[in-house]
Write a structure and sequence with these properties.
Structural class of chain A: mainly alpha
Order of helices and strands of chain A: HHEHHEEHH
Strand content of chain A: 5-15%
Radius of gyration of chain A: 20 Å
Mean pLDDT of chain A: 91
Largest sheet of chain A: 3 strands, antiparallel
Distance between the termini of chain A: 29 Å
CATH architecture of the largest domain in chain A: Orthogonal Bundle
Largest interface: A-B, 47 and 47 residues
Oligomer: homodimer
CATH superfamily of the largest domain in chain A: Winged helix-like DNA-binding domain superfamily/Winged helix DNA-binding domain
CATH topology of the largest domain in chain A: Arc Repressor Mutant, subunit A
Shape of chain A: elongated
Number of strands of chain A: 3
Chain lengths: 152, 152
Amino acid sequence: MMNDMTDKARPDCNDPFIEALERLIVPMGMPPIAARMQGYIMLCPEPVSLDEIVDGLRVSKSSASVAARLLERYGILRCYTERGTKRVRYGVTEHCAGFLLEQMRSIGTMAALLRDAAGARRDDAVTARLKDMGAFYARVHTALEGVLSEGD
Amino acid sequence: MMNDMTDKARPDCNDPFIEALERLIVPMGMPPIAARMQGYIMLCPEPVSLDEIVDGLRVSKSSASVAARLLERYGILRCYTERGTKRVRYGVTEHCAGFLLEQMRSIGTMAALLRDAAGARRDDAVTARLKDMGAFYARVHTALEGVLSEGD
DNA sequence: TGACATATTCGGTATTCACCGAATATGATT
DNA sequence: AATCATATTCGGTGAATACCGAATATGTCA
């Protein structure tokens, strides 16, 4: 039975790391509460319950629930359940790799879009440019794949 | 004196590439008109004027101006001026590298945030985790730097 | 300097997003 | 099946974003 965190181990919701992470990933499309939650849970030594997140971040239960589900879907958080209770806890995945996987995925998608667009074009200069870009993005995608699989 | 594009060479604003690119980068925080403009200009053989963009994408002149400036700031478009006229034209940069540079930059920033946060932590398990993550993100950043400089 | 062409800024408006608390759904136990 | 604890969904509301057209700024030429 995991204990709730003592006040000493509980992150401060105004921690500079949380604020900096929010400034980094919110402009990238991450909703604000999800961003802060990611930062908060990254600073927690153990997985935390929704109620602890609610207390720690001072947000509504429903907002916490929605954000946690989103982060789980992105591979940033992992959900832990427990026999005998409906309560769940969320902890960070290894490396919060969701952040990197999402970027790798978008680069791979871009490479595919460019390759498809090159196949559809009729102007030679545009076709050549799209092919060149597509190959470049594919190279970057392959490199990312390599370094991300080494990290396992 | 560059001629305006003929109808044959002018991209269709409903081109599948433009729509797919919009679906990819708008959720990443790119404003919709800027996303469509990027796709449109990537399909143009030559740099295009704001009026051509307005006609091609069916948006207001002011929206086109704001979006073009934003894409220029992101390193995705390049602005071409011409003696004797105030008119400007926008064309894509090499590889639209702004997309990749921005991702590399965010990974580098993440590595730095983690390193700083590890230095500030007092719980050993959290410190170790942040250090490990920071090193991982730094490795990915370095690999991206490598492959992006080869692309030049 | 004035006229004109062009880009940019500004304020208004509609739409979307973000967040909340209430209502509802769900899981566990007796 | 009833009860309770917990998570999730839903609808309302305010804030932020997106886009427009008018107003303004800016560059060029005579």
